[in-house]
């Protein structure tokens, strides 16, 4: 995805100057982020020492849709799934309300809860983000199929599109890295801010839910790529060139958002999130010739252009032949299969991960935390992945080791809470 | 550590404008970084597509000392230890030469090796950093005690200061996360650039050395903290306030660099690196009162100031008493013990880490990748850690799970290679 976001940040001093000139209002979008100037301990709300934030560092938490879906990709992700330990639906409701309040505050650059300096109590916020800008922090919540089992009386509300994911050819899924009752995707342009987000949600959940899995991810940052060109995956290839242009609302409606006609009603404006932890066989790939690598992807490595083209964004034309009459882009290449004759699209939002080494083999435990959004996985992700799992040349170099499908709730209005249309 | 680095980056366009004005020379320091302008495939050296880099994105690899020691801390680390699989000292020499060449290129923003477009060969560089600025990439090499065993005929050269680390009270060390023949600390202001660095070293080592452990780490970035204030650890406290000011060369000489008088001669200008993987008991900490947290560190959480003070950088005065005559800063607090009556200093260079969750307990597997440099661990790190291990209030909330001590080689001159004074 060519996000090309504006990476400019303001210093506190810049903001104070602007505030003096009455200009801070100009920096604030329509998001209504609450009290932003909280520079002293005497401010009732806000963590002491938290600097003010410019609107470009804030993605509003409240809205028609959840943020973190069509939001241009931030540089870091810290993502986790929770299993509920309570069987009381009212306790779940309370948890989602507490999470909503915490997310609204953190995305606005505030600490969790009004800060107390009472030495006899644990601080409400864990503290590692004090003084940091929110750096476009977003939280995106989804619920898995297990949320609709017998525990909470919600079985009748399970969407038909929230299927039990079929087993794909080659899957080597680890249960501990898959599924979960509730998933939370936390993204930000700073890894400490993202970690702080999920850590505080886990803390708030104590007694009601526990983390089932947690995975951090990254891509190249603005420090290394000020122009914001298409990120490369750990196989060295650009990844996301052909992502649908969801800045165009009709494209987003077609690909991502559940319309009222799809049902159930509580999912209108939501989306379905697929997560796949895809380990890359990096050492094998690194012994592979450039020709084989490019054949596998169907693109040139350095430019990202389709085979035979020069421009990354050149149209994919599968009818083009080489001098010997063979297709320039191999029909079993990743790009050819994922294209799905242009009829099926998903919104990809993946991050690289690195979990050290596999102690059994000494090989790198690294790959892609693949995330995608689609309005109906039965018509989008599943047929695409079935095709890829069966034929993709890339399968020689990757293995899917974790998986999850989640119904991503609609956005939350001011005064509402995440999941309020369902609960 | 208050690094307060200049975080400005240049776009490629800025640089081309400067180049047009004949101004690129002004951007280059004394580091002699070789060919910087390599914008086309016709350039003999340099990975195609690699953008030019400003000197502030480049820390020179060659010099009297290795970089990455007194270099202001970058935001990311990707650090690993290798075990040698060869027993031929000449093969080790060749490996260190190849690593030197690769590091000199990568730190200058070039790919590993002159890039070939020969489709029948694997690319020399793994590709994920193509087009990225080097973002102050540094490589810092050290050798462990096992490097001096019987394999390479170097037993007689082992420095006395490269001791077998004593077992400290409370240590719960995991062998797989400790020691190793060779350690490499890779730091950069971009996580993909840092990963690319160690991954390519591992690739070059194939047949001669394998990764024994690998750990990534982070701190708050310039995106979240444009002013570059003291980073906070994952317990929410500022970490590094009292680090020695190694910008002052006489302080660096006193604390960090091995002088000729210490011996052995091949270590002159080197340093000793200690690595400790310190897991934090985050869930327990988060249930602890603010008062207990501040008592434990001996500092206020929000300001970072010593207890009873307002300013982070206020002098530590352990003679100050409260109204009841008790010391303001508890004698068993972390800051009081680590102070060592002002007589012992180390240069700390730690990063936070997060490795997902501990699947056995569901708790966060996160903490501090503690790294420090000192000129003699027998006189600096070891006595300090013995005192901390025995008495530090913080021990209730942390556990040391990995450990390594390494002789960090002197810097490399142009034409030399890392370790050439030893090998």
UniProtKB/TrEMBL annotation, chains A, B:
The lineage of its organism: Bacteria, Bacillati, Bacillota, Bacilli, Bacillales. Belongs to the DyP-type peroxidase family. It holds the Pfam family Dyp_perox_C. It catalyses: heme b + 2 H(+) = protoporphyrin IX + Fe(2+). Binds 1 heme b (iron(II)-protoporphyrin IX) group non-covalently per subunit. The chain crosses the membrane at residues 15-38. NCBIfam families: Dyp_perox_fam, TAT_signal_seq, tat_substr_1. It is an enzyme of class 1 (oxidoreductase). Its main location: other. SUPFAM superfamilies: Dimeric alpha+beta barrel. This is Deferrochelatase. Residues 66-219 form the Dyp-type peroxidase N-terminal domain. Keywords: Heme, Iron, Lyase, Membrane, Metal-binding, Oxidoreductase, Peroxidase, Signal, Transmembrane, Transmembrane helix. Residues 230-412 form the Dyp-type peroxidase C-terminal domain. GO terms for molecular function: ferrochelatase activity; heme binding; metal ion binding; peroxidase activity. GO terms for cellular component: cell envelope; cytosol. Involved in the recovery of exogenous heme iron. Extracts iron from heme while preserving the protoporphyrin ring intact. One of its GO terms (biological process) is iron import into cell.
